[in-house]
Amino acid sequence: MRIKPILQKTYFRTFLLLTTVLICSIIPFVYLLSAEFAKYTMLEVRSSSQNEVNNLASKAEMILGNLKANGLSMYADQNIQNWFFNTSNDPLINHAALVAQSNFMSTEPLIQRSYLINLKLDLVVDSKVGIVRNESFADQSMLKRVESSHPQYLRFFNHSLDGSDSLALILPATPKKPSDFYLVLLVDKPLLSKLLFGQTVSSEQDIRILDEHGQLLLGVSNPALSGQLYQASREQQDSDFQVRLPHQRWFVNTAKLTTENWSVYYSNEYHILTRHISLFQQKLITYTLLLLALLSLLFFWSSRRSLRSITFLSEKLKGKVAFANATSDARPDIQWINDGIDMLLNNVEQLHASMRNQSELVRTELLAQWMLHGTPGTKSYEYIQTKTKLASCEALFLAVLRIEAYTVFCERYDFPSRKLIKYAIRNISEEVIGTGSYAAEGLDMGGDHIILVVGGHASGGLRLQRLLEETQNQVARILNVDTTTAVSNAYDFGANIRNIYDHIYELTKLRFLNGEKQFFLESDYEEFMAGYPSASEALETAEIIKSIRRGRPETALALLRQQMKHVHELPYRDCKLNLTYFTYDLLKNFNKSSVLHEISSIHHLLERHSTLSEYQAWLESIVTMLASETEVPKSSSRKEEIVLEIKEYVDNHLQDAQLSIEQVADNFSFSVSYIRQLFKEIMNVSLSEYILQERIERVKEKLISSQLSVLEIADQCGFISKGHFFAAFKKFTNLTPKQYREIHGDSAVKDIVPPSLSWRSGS
Q: Residue ranges of the alpha helices (H) in 328-413?
């Protein structure tokens, strides 16, 4: 016994399915849980950092406030005041001021140096040197500052002396006014930083204080980070933000020192904040994977215990049922069981589908033969008599439902969708008309319209009109498709229905005369033709139409201008009449063109143009656009759809002996050269060769499946002459029709392949 691969075993596939579902359920949950934890933790860390920076700001303001208070107390000392206002340079007063200064310095360790500056006497009391003249004073930059400007009152600033940085505070004797007496305090920046920030700051942290201009006051000197911090705080205006440096990422919290207009920046590197979060996430993922492994083992044991019996069942079934490719097709156990049941169901379904398709094909072919030949042949009459109620009706009516704006319709729906919509139009029409005691048979001959053959009473024309109008309304409501409908008078069964069909289809094009009307009777056409100019007076459109179809706009315009010369001298009424029929003859030949989609009525067009030259200019623009549209390149998908429609049209008109490339081009509003080129490009065979091949294939099918004579079959398949038929058949099969029937008539009936399938496979 051959051992199956483990992947084919049902219990193993079930185990994989359950494990996959479990993983797809737990992994997103764990990810979301981890993300929420990280988010919550980051919020807590940032909140803690913000509290820390707020405390630092409060502490800094308190220390700086104490320094200001100490300076004011020193200023208020009587000995210092006496020195400031002494005019005689008394040595005792000088000594008392120096002692008072030293006493205050000893009580505040943050003040590393202080100056008492008397600009009147040009004297400075330096806490480290003593009393010196201005020219001998060591800190000349400070002296120049107090001499040349009016320093801000009680505001600290950076000051450098002998390579040592400090914070300086200048207190003038008279705030906000010029003064000759100043007290200057120099604060020890390293000691102040140590007092504010603690003993040590790690390399992953950065604490600093910047002034309103972004200059570093306290903290480690790092120009790149200082500039980024200052710029980011100005742009974002938030208390917390992020700063990115090469290979570094910082989370920053800020707080303002309102008294000094400074900012405290408390920065932490990103990996410090996320280090513990990452450890937690790694542990969570590890425990999750262990849990998944444990559950997977449990699922494997459970599925194997429960479903192993299916494997035994499938093995027994394979021994009893003859499956196609049973030895080579690697399928799971459950598939072998399902296929045994599906085999019977598929056979039944194929039988029903074959019967339905064959019935529809027979119906379409026989009705199309009747429509294209004018009178029903023997087979067509038998079908009409046995399968429809038309033969028993008193009279026949022929109606055509033409889809409006067919080019837009083709752009909106692809080829299969258009087939389904036209099939739905046919069903709606048969259903609506059937409710009025009429017999109706619909037929899609390809192109932009549906044909309805209706049987009823000869006097029931008015009732039929109402039903057809109701059909139009239902099609518009259900399918959102507008149609123009034309219906014939009552005819007997022996009438030439081909002529009636051509005439009624022509009726639908009368919409160009009055765009508001979408339903036409034969009497409308008679009324239209009653006013048609005589052949000698009518303007000629045939050559113009031929030039448009060939894609020659210059020739078409020249012919149009030549024809328009004939109406320039006519009276207004005759001129309007000739233009109406001339425009109608021109436009009806291109009724599917997108260029004419927006044209509602020829009468409205004539009224809209006030002069003949304006109307001629409009006609010339339409002719140019129509000529250019006949050779418009299409996308690959649109080309394939057009070829599919061409094939459908040809298949539906093979019985028509008048079928030609010109007729196909006319139906699709393209030039003959473009249709030839397009079909050859997609199908790798010429259109004329395809038509001949399809006719021969249909002849071969009928030779096998029917008892009709060879000439009857040739006539039904669209061959005009007997000589052409025999020559073409001999060319494709190397046999005469009689020899082909004798060879294939007995055995090939059950192996018939619809002729179109061979071309579809080739496409």
A: 333-373, 378-387, 406-412
Residue 366's contacts (CB-CB under 8 Å, 6 or more residues apart) are 376, 379, 380, 383, 384
Residues 697, 700, 704, 706, Cα dihedral to 10°: 90
pLDDT tens digits, 327-379:
545 666 666 667 766 665 665 566 555 555 577 777 888 888 888 888 887 77
User: Which 3 state secondary structure label does DSSP give 580?
Assistant: helix
Say how far apart CA 686 and CA 346 lie, in whole Å.
38
Closest CA to 696 of 731, 739, 721: 731
Residue 270, burial from CB neighbour count under 10 angstroms (0-12, 13-18, 19+): middle
Task: Reduce the DSSP state of residue 170 to 3 states and report it.
Answer: strand
Q: Which of 432, 443, 498 is nearest to 465 (CA)?
A: 432
Query: pLDDT value at position 404?
Result: 83
Ranges of H-type helices in 441-514: 461-479, 497-507
SS3 of residue 394 by DSSP:
coil
CA separation, residue 455 to residues 304, 369, 489 (Å): 68, 18, 12
Q: H-helix or E-strand containing 27?
A: helix 10-76
Identify the residue whose tokens are 């049987």. Answer: 455
**Closest by Cα among 644, 638, 679 to 661:** 679
Q: Mean per-residue pLDDT for 535-561?
A: 78
Report how many helices (DSSP H) and strands (DSSP E) the chain contains, helices first.
Answer: 27, 16
- Does position 216 have pLDDT exceeding 90, yes or no? no
pLDDT in tens, 643-672: 888 888 888 888 888 888 888 887 777 778
| Phi, then psi, of 323 in degrees rounded to 5 | -90, 150
**Could you tell me the two tokens for 561?**
């201008």
Give the integer Cα–Cα distance in Å for 434 and 440.
Answer: 6
Dig out the tokens for 227 from the structure.
């500039």
